[in-house]
Design goal:
binds iron/sulfur cluster, Nuclear Transport Factor 2, Chain: A, binds flavin-adenine dinucleotide, 2 domains, about 300 residues, disordered N terminus
Length: about 300
């Protein structure tokens, strides 16, 4: 099955000496620690700003005309899928919003106005685009105009109403007072406008999470061109996995253009990432959900 996937998707997996176990993080070409070299991007970005830097590079190099991202709407921390065409708009959309942002819903609108687009999304959103590409009688013509799929790691996600409840019930904070949110080192942390930091263990998020997330085995966006996360990276850096020729090319070209700096992934904590990826797979296996097995060949 994995061989078939490689044939269909044109992927190869590194032979031996992998920095990360492909059985846990999915097949990949290369793994790096990386961050944006532009300080503005790093400041606006959630971690190392790699996602924003890559999308900026793709726009400026003419690889894509537009990108589908998640900006924040009028409600505090409510993500809003948006089609953007400039680096300034990408900066405004940077940062993680811990609520569902249906980015794929803008695909048709984006390709009706632009020849080529990039899409950033959670692993399930990335998979939805890949599936669309493969079904000739569906929206394959739309999906094939996605020239860059950037997947952000995702342990679970919340409906916006549940994010508000989580903030109020578990952290005792009004969403409008939150300046920053982060999931790191097993904790969900918010920083309020007056600099106060409040945390809860990530395990407290499950009861607020979207039901489907309890049956999701993909932490690292295995279908993306490039996957970007923070688990296993030092503060201010990303773990980045390239998974396709296109993903590897754009990453290398962003490094060559001086937009990204990279380090060996072993300089972070790859075991932490592997553990989280394994936990997510096992959670689904233990739930005895039958639907994921055919799609995730590495499952038990
Ligand atoms: C719900 C959720 C759970 C996550 N869980 C983990 C985790 O367990 N471990 C881990 O390592 N990383 C996790 N991440 C990813 C992490 O928060 C960062 O997005 C990732 O490290 C990329 O960092 P960056 O500095 O490159 O991001 P940036 O340069 O800031 O770019 C982030 C991009 O993501 C888009 N975006 C923001 N929120 C959403 C959303 N809700 N849906 C779709 N797109 C969005 C933004 O528009 C922006 O383009 C999670 C993200 C989300 C949204
Ligand atoms: S946990 Fe899985 S199903 Fe839930 S938002 Fe993340 S990728 Fe999608």
């Amino acid at each position: 099955m994995r061989g078939l996937l490689r044939k269909v998707l044109g992927r190869s997996r590194r032979d031996g000496g992998e920095e990360l176990d492909p059985e846990l993080v999915g097949p990949y070409r290369s793994a790096y620690l990386a961050r944006a070299t532009d300080e503005r991007v790093r400041e606006a970005g959630q971690d190392g700003g790699v996602t924003t830097a890559l999308l900026t590079h793709a726009l400026e190099e003419g690889l894509v005309e537009a990108a589908i991202v998640a900006t924040t709407g009028s409600d505090p921390w409510k993500p809003e899928p948006t089609v953007v065409t400039s680096p300034e708009e990408l900066l405004e959309a940077a940062g993680s919003k811990y609520a569902i942002s249906p980015n794929v819903s803008l695909l048709e609108e984006a390709v009706s106005a632009h020849e080529s687009v990039a899409l950033v999304g959670t692993p399930c959103q990335v998979t939805a685009v890949r599936k669309a590409e493969r079904y000739a009688h569906g929206v394959a013509d739309v999906a094939e105009r996605v020239r860059l799929l950037v997947g952000i790691f995702c342990s679970e996600n919340l409906e916006y109403e549940n994010l508000q409840r989580l903030l109020r019930e578990e952290l005792g904070v009004d969403p409008s007072r939150v300046e920053r949110m982060d999931i790191t080192a097993g904790k969900f942390t918010v920083v309020t406008e007056d600099g106060e930091e409040r945390t809860v263990p990530v395990s407290r998020l499950s009861r607020y999470a979207n039901e489907a997330c309890h049956f999701c085995a993909d932490l690292t966006a295995e279908d993306a061109d490039v996957s970007v996360g923070s688990t296993g990276a030092p503060d201010g850096w990303n773990v980045v996995l390239t998974r396709t020729d296109r993903g590897e090319e754009i990453l290398q070209s962003a490094v060559d253009a001086g937009r990204l700096e990279t380090r060996e992934v072993s300089e972070g904590d790859p075991k932490v990432l592997e553990r989280l990826a394994r936990d997510k797979r096992e959670r689904v296996r233990d739930s005895r959900c039958a639907t994921w097995r055919p799609y995730h060949p590495s499952g038990p």
